[in-house]
Design goal:
With 256 residues, the chain is an all-alpha fold. It has helices spanning 2-30, 39-49, 54-76, 85-123, 126-132, 137-175, 180-190, 193-220, 226-255. Helix 8 (193-220) packs antiparallel against helix 9 (226-255).
């Protein structure tokens, strides 16, 4: 019993220490935001994290949009409501599937890459070398990646939703024969920016902050060994996925 209490206490202290280091990282890396001198680094990281993720976002968005159109049409046609297919697909993509799936894909593709890159820089003592030369690695290495993730994920989530709606229109209108006018008109009349689109944008912003923060911190806090790099990369994907799903529940609860 005493051993279990000691183990619980040690794990609790380790968790508090981890949260404290993560909070310090957030404080020093996020504010003040990157200035003109770091603009080139920020643009490079937006390309690395955002632009290079476009292919998987587009392919996934189109596939999910097409599947939603197929399944939605199958159910709606039973009630003669296939004209509402566009509205249903748009609401599901904009408010839920777009932000969540984009965040999960972003964590698997970009988040793991950020963690591995920073962890490797730590293992090869590049971060220590920067400190010896008087360069702050937090501002030079971590901050541009954090801000790039904050910017990239909301844009990718919007792109995911747009491509998904386009894929649903191709399947629903061109293949299944839903009237094109009713498909788009029901969407335009039922989807409100403040009530639906803005909530999806808020979700994607929160997800972007959480996933990027976890990715950068896991790389910066990893052990400087090959096993440490592998463990940090795995933790990034696992913790990011759990955080996105948990945050999605609480955000949806507060919004609705």
């Amino acid at each position: 019993m005493i051993k279990r209490i000691r183990l619980l206490g040690r794990k609790s202290l380790e968790l508090l220490g981890t949260l404290g280091r993560a909070g310090q990282l957030w404080r020093f890396a996020v504010w003040p935001p990157p200035g003109p001198s770091s603009f080139v680094l920020l643009v490079k990281q937006i390309y690395e994290l955002g632009v290079l993720s476009v292919v998987i976002i587009v392919l996934s968005g189109f596939s999910i949009g097409a599947v939603l159109a197929l399944q939605g049409y199958t159910q709606l046609v039973k009630f003669g409501a296939e004209s509402s297919l566009g509205l249903g697909v748009a609401l599901v993509l904009v408010m839920e599937i777009g932000p969540v799936v984009s965040a999960l894909l972003f964590a698997g593709r970009a988040g793991s890459a950020v963690t591995a890159e920073i962890a490797l820089m730590k293992a090869t003592e590049q971060l220590s070398s920067m400190e010896m030369m008087g360069v702050d690695p937090v501002k030079q290495v971590l901050a541009p990646r954090l801000w790039a993730g904050f910017i990239a994920l909301p844009v990718l989530a919007l792109l995911f939703s747009l491509v998904g709606i386009w894929g649903a229109s191709l399947i629903g209108v061109n293949w299944l024969g839903v009237y094109e006018g009713s498909f788009w008109v029901s969407m335009q009349e039922g989807v409100d920016f403040n009530q639906h689109v803005l909530k999806g944008i808020i979700k994607s912003i929160v997800f972007g902050m959480a996933v990027t923060w976890i990715s950068v911190f896991q790389g910066y806090d990893s052990l400087p060994t090959s096993e440490g790099i592998a463990s940090a990369t795995t933790r990034t994907v696992v913790y990011s996925s759990i955080s996105v799903l948990a945050l999605d529940f609480f955000l949806t609860l507060m919004m609705f």
